Amino acid sequence: MKREFFRQSGIDVSKGILGKYLIRRYKDIEIVTKIVETEAYMGVDDKGAHVYGDKKTERTKPLYLDGGHIYVYLIYGMYHCLNISANIVNTPECVLIRAVEPINNLNLISNNRYNKYYEDLSSYQKKNITNGPGKLCMALNIDKSLNCEDILDSELYISDYYIENNKKIYCDESIVIESSKRINIDYAEEAKDYLWRFFIKNNKYVSLNKSK
Question: Buried b vs exposed e over 86-109: b needs ≥16 C-beta within 10 Å?
Answer without folding.
Answer: bbeeebbbbbbbbbbbbbbbbebb
